[in-house]
Design brief:
2 domains, elongated, mainly alpha
């Protein structure tokens, strides 16, 4: 072990910090990361002036609930796939239903 590594180990172990036990807990660090990601998503939606900023925060909550790194990519892919499939079904449904009934469709589920 080099002198630098020994000094680094002695500093971290020798000086107990008041918040070390708090931030050593994985749940606290996860909550801080989720909160910061939500604030960043909200900031981006406000900066871009998007009308529905709650969807960005919901996306952060869904993607951050992954248990491992590969799950984030899988959830993101499934979310995009579901959005595209929903848009295709909605456009096909609106092409099939006559225009007069289309206005009553959401209220009575035809």
């Amino acid at each position: 072990m080099s002198a630098m590594e020994t000094r680094a180990l002695s500093i971290t172990r020798g000086w107990p910090w008041a918040g070390q036990a708090l931030f050593g807990d994985l749940r606290v660090r996860y909550g801080i990361k989720m909160g910061l990601a939500g604030v960043l998503a909200l900031f981006c939606t406000q900066l871009l002036r998007l009308p529905n900023d709650n969807w960005a925060i919901l996306t952060v909550l869904v993607l951050m609930s992954a248990q491992f790194v590969g799950a984030v990519a899988f959830k993101a892919l499934m979310r995009v796939t579901g959005t595209i499939a929903g848009a295709l079904v909605a456009s096909g449904w609106s092409a099939i239903i006559p225009p007069l009934r289309r206005s009553f469709c959401p209220s009575c589920f035809w």
